[in-house]
Amino acid sequence: MTQQSLIFVALDYDNAESAWPLIDKLSPQQCGLKVGKELFTSAGPDFVRELVQRGFKVFLDLKFHDIPNTVNKAVRAAAELGVWMVNVHASGGRRMLEAARDAVADIPNRPYVIAVTVLTSMSAEDLQEVGIDVPPAEHVLKLAKLTQAAGLDGVVCSAWEAEAIAATCGAGFLRVTPGIRPVGSEQGDQRRVMTPPEAAALGIEVLVIGRPITQAPDPVAALSEIQASLTA
Ligand SMILES: O=C(O)c1cc(=O)[nH]c(=O)n1[C@@H]1O[C@H](COP(=O)(O)O)[C@@H](O)[C@H]1O
């Protein structure tokens, strides 16, 4: 993993046709690509294989959350697509996380397997409504420790929790942070947000950025601007 934060562009398009014009203008040296539930459901595994074929690091963001056996098989299928990273939900529990880890154990050049802690769209009030009466930062840390104990490679969290995770889990445990918003861009459904330079200054390994790039009038220029802001 490099010192500088890697940017993954979240390709949240409703089909492959809408995604290709941007992908065609990007290079694997510039950024990674995240394929989530919307695009994967519509475009399927062949689309992911094509991105891998073109040399992109692909983060397959399907956030598996199911019984251990099912998650094991799903993570294995994701790994066989050649993706760079795949995720599950940490709240699936220790045995489910271990099953996700075991799924890739014997795969050469295996993908990173990481776990979502608390979605960046959730505030303390949202958490309370689902029965979690502690601040997001506390619950994130608890799930990060569980994820590490289960042998996974890192977590998805908000940038606000990234320092505490590094202090507790150590260097080498990946922090992948969505909820990144350049100054002036719309927060939308995200709640625990931070700007790209602030997140990069924390040494966060992977920044996931979607709408501020994909919905910009010139997505490539928006990406370049964000990239320049990281080192400014
Ligand atoms: O796992 C994820 O990628 C993820 C976890 C999380 O807690 N929050 C979150 O926003 N994401 C994803 O990150 C992307 C963020 O996109 P934007 O909000 O448009 O920048 C979306 O594709 C989300 O599905």
From TrEMBL:
Record-annotated active site: 61 (for ompdecase activity), 63 (proton donor), 63 (for ompdecase activity), 66 (for ompdecase activity)
Q: What does this protein do?
A: Catalyzes the decarboxylation of orotidine 5'-monophosphate (OMP) to uridine 5'-monophosphate (UMP).
Biochemical pathway: Pyrimidine metabolism; UMP biosynthesis via de novo pathway; UMP from orotate: step 2/2
Q: Which HAMAP family match?
A: OMPdecase_type1_B
Q: Which reaction does it catalyse?
A: orotidine 5'-phosphate + H(+) = UMP + CO2
User: What does the similarity note say?
Assistant: Belongs to the OMP decarboxylase family. Type 1 subfamily.
Q: Which GO terms describe its biological process?
A: 'de novo' pyrimidine nucleobase biosynthetic process; 'de novo' UMP biosynthetic process
InterPro entries in alphabetical order: Aldolase_TIM, OMPdecase, OMPdecase_AS, OMPdecase_bac, OMPdeCOase_dom, RibuloseP-bd_barrel
Please name the SMART domains in this protein's record: OMPdecase
PROSITE patterns the UniProt entry points to: OMPDECASE
GO CC, alphabetical? cytosol
Question: What is the name of the protein in this document?
Answer: Orotidine 5'-phosphate decarboxylase
Give binding positions for substrate: 12, 34, 61-70, 120, 181, 190, 210-211
Question: Which NCBIfam families does the protein's record reference?
Answer: PRK00230.1, pyrF
Asked if the keyword Ubl conjugation belongs to this entry, the reply reads no
Q: How does it assemble?
A: Homodimer.
* Molecular function via GO: orotidine-5'-phosphate decarboxylase activity
- For this UniProt record, give its keywords in alphabetical order, as a comma-separated list: Decarboxylase, Lyase, Pyrimidine biosynthesis
Q: Does the keyword DNA-binding apply?
A: no
Name of the top EC class for this enzyme:
lyase
Entry EC number(s): 4.1.1.23
**Pfam families for this protein:** OMPdecase (PF00215)
